[in-house]
């Protein structure tokens, strides 16, 4: 491997609990890249991209696919629901986006099976109130659990072997039916033959996309192609580094790129962290800066904060700079994009959570323990708001002085340069921000 590669291979990662707007930034950046790689998670993710007033909601296909010249790669760290992927292919093709020859799926990627989704629902239903993770019920956790368990896992490469698929599916379905009956009194067993036929159909359609993406990515980098890595969810949902156990089951932070994509981490030299101008979270778990009041409701309505995948209302709060700074530090974030600045227009004051107090003492930054995070008291710094017709703003210079001060403050609290600001859903509503010397 050559050390001469000076290309800025880039990763785009959420710095809070997901839904920061990574899809839009990937789409905006994708024109500078040849290959876009999705490296974690599955159909739990929801990436929304608006182009010319048209909405594209993607769950598995990397958002970069919306740029014609880009090859989209689904890497080993993803868990793939083939039915959901094919629905997305059909949706994209029906809207004139070519898929054939432009999407590659790693044969190492694990397959989400119907019993994973069923287990996700049964195990969540069995948990009481506060213990619920609040998953998306897409089978993500059970699929990653089978991957770790190994003997019950099925990978995309297995789709190419009919007899192997039949044997594996029959064995695991029989096992799961017994487990579900014993653990959850489930009286509706899955039928292995139906799943075998369903996945044989998927195999027929997906065969031509399946390959070993690891050497493909190596050769792409060696031949000077530029790679963009697109994370699903956000840093604080990372199974190792997030608000465990209220997390997803993959490495959603920037440190997960190397492992999930199958590339050396040192080649990814630019890490773009995405935040919204406020914070949101969907599902259970601690959210120190949450506003359970009229302001939280107003942010939700103005920002259309409802899940792309499940439609659930998102919990909303002021910007959590403590959590954001932790994510910047963990991921080696080199620059930040702030999304939804337009949503905060019209508020008399805007708040930033700058520290947490616990038992009367200020904590030294973010903390690993979800129970402590549940009981911290957020310390808010309030700043003057602004009221502007954001649709008329064409450059960073045009932003109201209060909005610029707000961005300056976020930048110094995060400790990373804010290079882009989004003021609306469309590609065009993205402002480049000059360096300030703050971070
Ligand atoms: P799972 O990934 O479906 O297992 O869900 C685990 C947790 O991650 C739940 O709190 C979900 O709401 C959350 N989650 C998963 N995917 C996303 C996402 O794309 N955006 C925001 N939250 C997500």
Q: Helical element count?
A: 12
The pLDDT mean sits at: 95
Beta-strand segment tally: 20
| Overall radius of gyration | 22 Å
Briefly note the structural class of the backbone: alpha/beta
Residue share in β-strands: 15-25%
| Mass-distribution shape | globular
The unique ligands bound to this protein are: inosinic acid
Q: Describe the biggest sheet? A: 10 strands, mixed
Give the strand line-up of the largest sheet.
Answer: 9-7-5-2-10-1-11-15-19-20
Fraction of residues in H or I helices? 25-40%
Stretches with pLDDT under 50, minimum 5 residues: 1-5
Distance between the terminal alpha carbons, to the nearest Å? 34 Å
Offer a quick outline of the entry.
This protein is of the alpha/beta class. Helix content is 31%, strand content 21%.
Report on the structure:
There is one protein chain. This protein has 439 residues and is of the alpha/beta class. Helix content is 31%, strand content 21%. It has 12 helices and 20 strands. It has helices spanning 22-29, 82-94, 114-126, 140-149, 162-184, 192-206, 213-222, 257-261, 294-302, 321-331, 370-375, 401-414, and strands at 9-14, 35-38, 47-51, 54-58, 71-74, 79-80, 103-106, 110-111, 210-211, 227-234, 268-276, 279-281, 315-317, 319-320, 335-339, 349-358, 361-362, 377-384, 418-422, 430-432. The strands form 5 sheets. A 10-stranded mixed sheet has the order 9-7-5-2-10-1-11-15-19-20, with helices on both faces. Strands 14, 16, 17 and 18 form a 4-stranded mixed sheet that branches. Helix 3 packs across helix 4 (140-149) and helix 3 (114-126) runs parallel beside helix 5. Mean pLDDT is 95; it is low at 1-5. The structure holds inosinic acid (IMP). Inosinic acid binds at residues 17-19, 44-46, 133-136, 138, 140-141, 232-233, 237, 248-249, 282-284.
């Amino acid at each position: 491997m050559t050390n001469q590669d000076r290309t800025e291979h880039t990763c785009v990662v959420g710095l809070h609990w997901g839904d920061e707007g990574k899809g839009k930034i990937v789409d905006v950046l994708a024109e500078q890249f040849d290959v876009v790689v999705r490296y974690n998670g599955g159909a739990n993710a929801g990436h929304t991209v608006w182009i010319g007033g048209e909405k594209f909601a993607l769950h598995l296909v990397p958002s970069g696919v919306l740029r014609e010249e880009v090859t989209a790669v689904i890497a080993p760290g993803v868990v793939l629901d083939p039915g959901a992927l094919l629905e997305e292919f059909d949706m994209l093709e029906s809207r004139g986006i070519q898929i054939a020859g432009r999407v590659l799926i790693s044969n190492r990627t694990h397959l989400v099976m119907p019993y994973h989704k069923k287990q996700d629902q049964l195990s969540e239903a069995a948990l009481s109130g506060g213990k619920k993770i609040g998953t998306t019920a897409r089978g993500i956790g059970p699929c990653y659990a089978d991957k770790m368990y190994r003997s019950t896992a099925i990978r995309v490469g297995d789709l190419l072997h009919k007899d192997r698929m039949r044997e594996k599916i029959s064995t695991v379905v029989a096992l799961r039916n017994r487990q579900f009956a014993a653990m959850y009194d489930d009286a509706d067993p899955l039928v292995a033959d139906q799943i075998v036929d369903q996945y044989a159909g998927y195999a027929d359609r997906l065969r031509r996309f399946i390959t070993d993406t690891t050497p493909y990515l190596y050769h792409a980098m060696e031949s000077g192609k530029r790679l963009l890595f697109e994370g699903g969810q956000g840093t604080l949902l990372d199974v190792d580094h997030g608000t465990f156990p209220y997390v997803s089951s993959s490495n959603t932070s920037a440190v997960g790129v190397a492992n999930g994509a199958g590339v050396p981490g040192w080649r990814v030299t630019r890490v773009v962290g995405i935040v919204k101008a406020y914070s949101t979270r969907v599902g259970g778990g601690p959210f120190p800066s949450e506003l359970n009041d009229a302001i939280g409701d107003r942010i939700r309505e103005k920002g259309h904060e409802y899940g792309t995948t499940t439609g659930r209302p998102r919990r909303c709060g002021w910007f959590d700079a403590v959590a954001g700074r932790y994510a910047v530090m963990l991921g080696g974030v080199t620059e930040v994009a702030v999304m939804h600045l337009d949503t905060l227009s019209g508020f008399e004051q805007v708040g930033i959570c700058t520290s947490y107090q616990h038992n009367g003492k200020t904590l030294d930054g973010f903390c690993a323990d979800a129970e402590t995070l549940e009981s911290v008291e957020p310390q808010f710094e309030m700043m003057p708001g602004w009221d502007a017709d954001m649709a008329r703003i064409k450059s960073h210079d045009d932003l109201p002085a209060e909005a610029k001060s707000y961005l300056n403050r976020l930048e110094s609290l995060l400790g990373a340069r804010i290079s882009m600001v989004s003021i609306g859903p469309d590609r065009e509503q993205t402002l480049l921000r000059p360096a300030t010397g703050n971070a």
